[in-house]
Amino acid sequence: MPDPSPRPPAPHPSAPPASAGGPLLPGRRILVVGAGTRPSDDPAAPVGNGRAIAVTAAREGAQVACADVDEAAAGATAGMIAAEGGRAHVVIADVTDPESCDRVVMRAAEKLGGLDGVVFNPGIGIGYGLAGTGLADWDRVMQVNLRAPFLVGKAALPALDAGAAMVFIGSLAGTKPGSRSPSYDASKAGLVRHIAAEGAGRGVRANVVAPGLIDTVMGRDASGGNTSRDRAAALIPMHRQGTAWEVADVVVFLLSHRAAYVTGQVVHVDGGLSTLR
Fold first, then answer.
1. Region 9-17: what's the mean pLDDT?
2. Residue 13: inside a domain, yes or no?
3. Domain that holds residue 89
4. Catalytic residues
5. Whole-prediction pTM
């Protein structure tokens, strides 16, 4: 007669250890495209999302390829990682060049000895409203914000084995038209669900992290300084801007085995801004 007593479910064969201690990305090889922070004359300029992601990944045990169109900016990020005892490499990548999008994946894999994760961070916004957005502006934004992640994702997927992950940095503007730039809003809607669907059969995950109002150099430049952003931040349920480090923590989690059953999702890092109408 079968035993009627309940039994605990069997653990998933690839389940990570139950311990919450230890780094999230031990031995992982991560490419961060857009790992630099744009230059600023402000001595108190905040770190950008890409640099924070690269440094946080290294702190969690990963070896990182820091890719950027600005070699000096990528080098500065790699220097920060090295100064903390991490391992980092510099790769030059111009995401407006289709060949460069293919090349950055290949070179990162060569330098790292393979790839376990890819983060695509670059993004630009040009134009204000429909009347203030020219065709050239639209095309430029689509090149960087939509065509480039398509090309990097296309090149990366065959290079990634089961357990690997891709994270694309989107924006709250991709789900709500809030930037007043139609090209930016449209481009940040992204293509992650298709990549996630193709990758799932191979055990490769893909997700979007969609920041809200984050205090970065790009954000300050877009708003002409930080004062107006502070006023806007008062409308956020958490009453403040986020930081690039807070974005990086979510990205690193999604790259890790702790997010092994998370794919095709858009994760908002916005202090509750997406809950408002």
1. 41
2. no
3. 29-271
4. 184
5. 0.86
